[in-house]
Design brief:
two-stranded parallel sheet, alpha/beta, single chain, 295 residues, globular
């Protein structure tokens, strides 16, 4: 049965300048949080900003091999950007910390919280890949479970690529009995002719999460049909994706902590404005549902 909760007065957002990385890369994810927040602050949507505590090695080692974690920070193992820069690795303490803090806040307010970060789902138990160094989704799930804040959790990964690192950790650590992991890149054919089928299937997926204590939602921008690494949803279809997710979370009183995931489009000037527009759209849909604001 649906449990009514009063709308929030502002959307909680967990952000730190210390999560910003400096790296020359095809992916803008290391620096994207700053640009996303600046774009969001220009919208007429109330935001409540919170600082972020960095996660410790011990927390990261809940999902990752000890020698892998130590090697990343020592600069002896390449991170997700194929760099061995310890300073870039340190920013990951804050991106993962933002995801964990947002999840705890969503559980506390029983509705929603936001971590404007990327770079999680390709990080496996002992390897970095695809601009992902540490798997903040799985670190968050394991930390919440250890704290006794959840018994079951859902991960809806709507980055267009398969969350192979997430599934690797779930398999290696035997977590299938309490983590429901649904990844767009595994469960759907991501071609334009299958876009409407994805949207038709999504309500049933959301219904399957109804008994979970929390949803971690990767609201990726790279499924957009103009994305060089994506290519199957229009802007209107991505709006409908987010609307379905947030409406069903509200319907089932399912707290949701969401982040950004991929997005690689550039405009003619070389900026990531097309990606920011999609992240703006997700925030507007979130506000429409949880603040009762029209998008």
């Amino acid at each position: 049965m649906m449990r009514q909760t009063a709308p929030l007065s502002a959307l909680p957002v967990f952000y730190s300048e210390r999560m910003i990385g400096q790296v020359a890369s095809f992916s803008p994810s290391a620096g994207k949080p700053r640009a996303v927040l600046a774009s969001w602050q220009k919208l007429d949507i109330p935001l409540e900003l919170h600082d972020v505590e960095p996660v410790t090695n011990a927390l990261l080692e809940m999902a990752h091999a000890t020698e892998y974690v130590e090697g990343i920070f020592a600069g002896s193992i390449a991170n997700g950007f194929r760099s061995k820069d310890p300073a870039l690795a340190e920013t990951c303490r804050y991106t993962v910390g933002a995801m964990l803090a947002a999840a705890r806040e969503a559980i506390c307010n029983r509705q929603v919280a936001i971590a404007p970060v990327s770079g999680f789902h390709h990080a496996s138990h002992n390897a970095a890949f695809g601009y992902c160094t540490f798997n903040g989704l799985l670190v968050t799930a394991l930390a919440l479970k250890k704290l006794g804040l959840i018994s079951t959790i859902a991960i809806l990964d709507c980055d267009v690529h398969y969350g192979d690192g997430s599934q690797d950790i779930i398999n290696r650590l035997g977590l299938k009995h309490w983590i429901q992991h649904v990844s767009m890149g595994q469960h759907w054919t991501t071609l334009p002719e299958h876009a409407e089928q994805f949207l038709a299937d999504l309500p049933q997926v959301m219904t399957s999460f109804a008994g979970c204590n929390l949803l971690l939602y990767q609201a990726g921008a790279d499924p957009h049909l103009n994305d060089p690494l994506g290519g199957f949803l229009s802007s209107e279809q991505m709006l409908r994706r987010d609307r379905i997710v947030f409406e069903y979370c509200k319907r089932f009183a399912l707290p949701v902590a969401w982040n950004l995931a991929g997005g690689y489009q550039r405009d003619v000037a070389g900026s990531i404005r097309p990606v920011l527009d999609l992240h703006d759209q997700t925030l507007k849909e979130c506000a429409r549902q949880f603040l009762n604001l029209d998008s």
